[in-house]
Amino acid sequence: MSNYTKSTNFASKDSLPPGNASKIVKGTEINTEFDNIATAVATKADSTSPTLVTPALGTPSSGVMTNVTGLPLTTGVTGTLPIANGGTGATTLAGASIATYTGTETLTNKTLTSPVLTTPALGTPSALVLTNATGLPAAQLTGTQTIPKSTLPTGSVLQVVNATYNTSFTTTSTSFQATGLTASITPSSSSSKILILVTQELYQNTNANSGILTIYRGSTSGTNLGNSSFGFASNYTFATSIASGASAIYLDSPSTTSSTTYITAIRTEGGSVITCANAQVATITLMEIAA
Predict the structure, then answer these.
(1) How far apart are the C-alpha atoms of 195 and 291, rounded to whole Å?
(2) Residue 162 and residue 38 in one domain
(3) Which of 176, 226, 170, 174 lies closest to 201 in space, CA to CA?
(4) CA separation (Å) from 288 to 160, 193, 255, 257?
């Protein structure tokens, strides 16, 4: 674009004396001025893709900014940006909603508070917490799964411990003596119950006397879980001797998460009582039950 430059100073002619040839306005001078004006107007008007250098545009009544770049969002944009254009459709975050947005967006490192996802395809997340998830089909569980014991319902078996013993033990004591059959368990919760199951052979070799079996928590100086005198089971002989199986089932409440030991003990009311006399296998099973 060019600027108009005046070729002739017509005002200076006014001060020339009459008869001075230069006082006369020539047609060529007028033509030259008109040509200069036409050139300037032609190069400035109807310009295609003009470049404006730091212009102050004021407040245009309208404008198309399709290819505008460098527009600062914090200071250069006002009003509400529609959802379809990547906005929230709301004037404040409190009223923002993307529930009706039907486009596709990639949210990278975004934090959404309590979003509701309707039938989303989550792919294979690297990590996922399903604390309140429901309706998960068992068929979808693959690999080794660990279910926290604390989430299992009351009455669930949390762990099982079993021990056996088949060494003969004889006593003539009328107070309970440990037989050697023992097992220990460490409850996962202090509210858990321990179900104890015992089978053990008793042999009484004196007529009209009994062999008696009981269970202790700890040792014979600990807690007798059965009757203080007659325990859980006994045999009685009307003849020279008698051999029989004895069993006991008891649900204990140790109220601890420390290792807890249970043992069997026997006593006699006269003569001798023997357990595992012929190497029979005695068993004790401990089951932790969720309470």
Answers:
(1) 12
(2) no
(3) 170
(4) 6, 6, 12, 11
Residue 137, in any domain of the structure = no
Largest Cα–Cα separation, the chain: 174
The answer to whether position 118 is within a domain reads: no
Return all residues near 216 (Cβ < 8 A) that are at least 6 apart: 176, 178, 222, 223, 224, 225, 262, 263, 264, 265
Q: Please report, as a single letter, which amino acid is at residue 54.
A: T
pLDDT tens by residue, 229-282:
999 998 877 667 677 889 999 999 999 999 999 999 999 988 899 899 888 999
- State the DSSP string of 137-199: -GGG--S-----GGGSPTT-EEEEEEEEE---EEE--SS-EEEEEEEEE--SSTT-EEEEEEE
pLDDT per residue as tens digits for the range 218-233: 999 999 999 999 999 9
Q: Which tokens is 125 given?
A: 């997340």
**DSSP helix/strand/coil, 226:** coil
Least confident among 8-17, 75-84, 87-96: 87-96
- Domain of 207 in residue numbering reads as 157-289
Please give the Cα distance from 100 to 91 (Å, whole number). Answer: 16
CATH number at residue 278: 2.60.120.1340
Burial (Cβ within 10 Å: 0-12, 13-18, ≥19) of residue 71: exposed
Q: 224: part of which helix (H) or strand (E)? A: strand 223-224
